[in-house]
Structures are given as structure tokens and as C-alpha cells.
User: Fold this.
Amino acid sequence: MLHPSPPAAYACRPEESRGRDLPEPESPTRSCFQRDRDRIVHAGAFRRLKYKTQVFVYHEGDYYRTRLTHSIEVAQIARSISRALGLNEDLAEAVALAHDLGHTCFGHAGEDALNHCMEPFGGFDHNEQTFRILTLLERRYAEFDGLNLTWESLEGIVKHNGPLTGPNAREDETVPPTVAVYCRDRRDLEVATFASAEAQVAALSDDIAYNNHDIDDGLRARLFTLDDLRELPLVGPLIAEVEGRYPGLEEPRLIHETIRRLIDHMVSDLLAETRRRVEAARPDSAAAVRALSAPLVAFSDEM
Assistant:
């Protein structure tokens, strides 16, 4: 039986959290990161994800993923990876569940259309909208707007794709205005550094989830066939592996068996590469992870 790894030296610890914008008494039954996760799940914006498109419009069938089911799949993968690495599962889950709260309906096509409509007002970006929801737009609590999440959750959500400024930022990356104002007036989210290992896990769990469920949904929608996938690296050999072990297996089972192996293959690769990087960098704290010149959590070059 595989047991969870002991807490890693570089994991985020709730007792060391930098706290919330508005200080609150701690919960007697939940850590601060558990509380963040629960607030996200109970947010109105989270419920609205059920009608937001991942790839297929939801009324085309109840099988296809929506932003809600996608976010749940991302969170499940993030928890599994975090447990294996000795990271804080609750923080990784909170970032995973919140990462698409600000997304439009109709996927990236919807975002492009809304960005065009909003050009006179600075455009639209779903990552900035997520941050706006979490810090301003959810108005349910008596004492504050937003969800009053911990610094670590907000930092992870803002930087889960990497630093926004500095030498390690992507060329097309910028600091959204809402984030810039927050960092100036409320708390510095240190946008020039990498996020925690937990947030990095959530970001790559997103990649694992959508690469796999897009194959599943695309096959079901007949946008492509198994024959179209057989010559591709990574997925093609796994189809052959399943067919070799289960000759004559009906197609829905063949697809599922292939995808579960593909998820396992990607997760195993991520774990191996991350452990290699941990061994090389030897970070001794969450702060040390943020100070690195490259992500700690990663796929291998081959993957």
C-alpha cells in the first residue's frame, strides 16, 4: 500500500500562512487552507461553472465536460500529486478549484469575443476576472467583499502559470490592473517570483486533466477517431498496449482504459521529474521554492 509522503520541507504550512486581508479567528476544525477551499466551493461563481463551456456547449449532452467538472478533475489530480510529494493537499485543491472561476461561457472563443467587446474598457482576461471575483465581486459575507482568502491561495491563483514580471516571466505576461492595485494597496503577492509548489502542481494538473478529457470528449463527439490517434506519440502506444492486453475490447472501454493509462503516465512523469528537481535544488522552505530560477514542479523534456 502506498502511504502519503511525510510533509516536505518545502511544503506550505497553514500555521505559517501570511494570513488574510481582514484577520479572522481561526476555525477550531479546519486549517486556513481547508477554509479557503470550502469558501471557493460555496461561492456563487463556483456553482455558475456548471453552465460554462469547457469545449462543448453543455446542452449538447450531459457526458461532456463543463468548467465545473473540469475543475473537479483538476482538483482530484492535484490532491493525488500533492500527497505523493508531501505537499499541502488543501492548498493545491483550493488553487485548482478556483483557477477557472472567472472564465467566460463558450470557452476561449467566448473570452476572445468578450475581450473584443471590452476593448474600450481595457479588455477582458479570465485570470484577472478570477482574481476580481475572489477579492471584490463575491458579496456574501457580512464583513468583507470577496472571499478573504489567505495570501498563499491568492498568490497561487495569480501566479499558477508562473511569474508575471521579471526574468522568469513569459514574454506575453503582464500584471493585470486589478492585481497591480491589490499589490499596491493591500498585500504584495510578489509577482516576480514563482508560486508555491502546491500552485505549480495545480497548474500542471490542469494540463493533465484537459489534455485527457479533451481526447475523451473529442472521440465521443466524433471530431476524430481512434485511428487518428494511433500514430501519435504517447497516446498511440497506449492504445496498442490496451488492445494487446484486451483483444476485441469494445470501444468505450478501450477509450477509458487508454485515458486512465495516459493520466497515470503523465502523473508518473511529473512526479519523477519533480523529485529530480527537488534533489538538485534542495529547497528547504516554501520561500526557497519561490526564489528558484525555474519551476520546481515540471514534466520531463520528453513529456
About this structure: The radius of gyration is 20 Å. The CA atoms of residues 78 and 219 lie 25 Å apart.
